[in-house]
Amino acid sequence: MVLNRFTVSFWVDDVRSRYLAYFSTPGREMEMFYDQRYNRLYFYVNGQATYCSGCISTGNRKHILVTWSGTADANGVGSIWVNGQRVHTFSGVSRGKSIPKGLPVKLGQRYDSSSTYSFTGEMMYFNLYLTYVTTAEEVAKLAKATTSDPEAVLPWGDFIGGGNGDVVLYPEYEIYTKSFTTITCNANNMTVSLERAAFPHLIPSRASLKDPSCRVIWDDNFVNITTPLDDCGTSVAYNSSVATYTNFLVPDIVNPPADPSDTRGTVHAVINRGAVALDESRLFISCNYDLVPHRTIAAYAVASSRYNIEGSGIRDFKFEIKLYHDASYKQAYNDREYPLHADSTERIYAEGSLTSGGENRTEIRIEKCVMTPDADPNYSTQHELIMEGCGVDDTVEYHDSPNFLAQRFSFQAFRFNERPTAVVYMHCYIDVCSADVKGTKCKIGWEACDADEEEA
Prior knowledge:
- By secondary structure, the protein is mostly beta strands.
- 7% of the residues lie in helices and 39% in strands.
- It has five helices and 28 strands.
- Strands 8-7-6-1-10-11 form a six-stranded mixed beta sheet, covered by helices on one side. Strands 5-4-3-2-9 form a five-stranded antiparallel beta sheet, with no helix packed on it. A five-stranded antiparallel beta sheet has the order 19-28-23-24-25.
């Protein structure tokens, strides 16, 4: 078989490295590699090279396609595509020539180099075709090719036995959930979009979230579904800094997956007559939200701003700190009254509150407040007011708050010896918790601080 035109399509999730060899043949009849020294992606045909600069980034998952035609009328033309975008075109590369048959193709390493120049990362769905492509539609079609694509003359299935260098060869469908799904994490819901072609086992008219009443909407190309963070069976788990909201998509609620207690078959046997297990068929959906929004204010001057929490998505919280005239908390200082002038005998009455991004099932706790004579929260000179939800300054007192989305406290004003005339800045961090979950930090409350002091 002689190749006077070909297309190579493959997926990689490469590790940032000085040098990455994607594929090669003994005499550079076909070769592609990335050289970080020059930020260039090189492509060779019959020893003749072309390259593009800055057209690719490493350290992420991407689809790469290169296509070439050396027929007499084609003039050695071709192009390189990354994630469906044409990033480089060329001509005059091995024009009028062909590639001999029977050449071995090596993945993850150049034939003429040592393991020093090996690929590191994950490689998937490398397929070689006897065709030349020119449109984004053709590229998108080849990007979805599977292990045994009948149109490929050298299919991915031929490489499943292994690759060279530190190459992880991923199994069938692993790429689908990461490359053909889109999830958007909003302040109050999660939205997922799936390309139907990548999920042949999904029946849109019978698909749902964990709660069967939460159904999907679909068209010829996509399946879309939105779940509120507090509905449709969505669960939430907390660690010290992140809340993870999780649900899953059931592809067919008429024939739902089996509960793990179904023991009619076992995966350790040769065959299994048990129902398809839940973990084998459901598609998990999750969004992470940071639980520690941070607010910096000048203690005797205050400013409010939006705080973006970034995890798997972005959730917009607006956390404010206001200062009040007295313990009645009836009148807050307005912006024109800042900076306040306070001497060491006065008390400062503060309120931290979540004014947006929270809902009825949310509550907060002020986790930490530190004071500095500079706007930098990491300034070397600091004085701690509140740590782990408890006042550590002897003058801190807590006051009743109007609701779960606010917390009030006061302390006696002071000045820093290092900079006695400087404005004193307050840097506060809060925990945001679900009001329905027991045992969260927000449930402890400042009353527990008093109890700890009594026990001590």
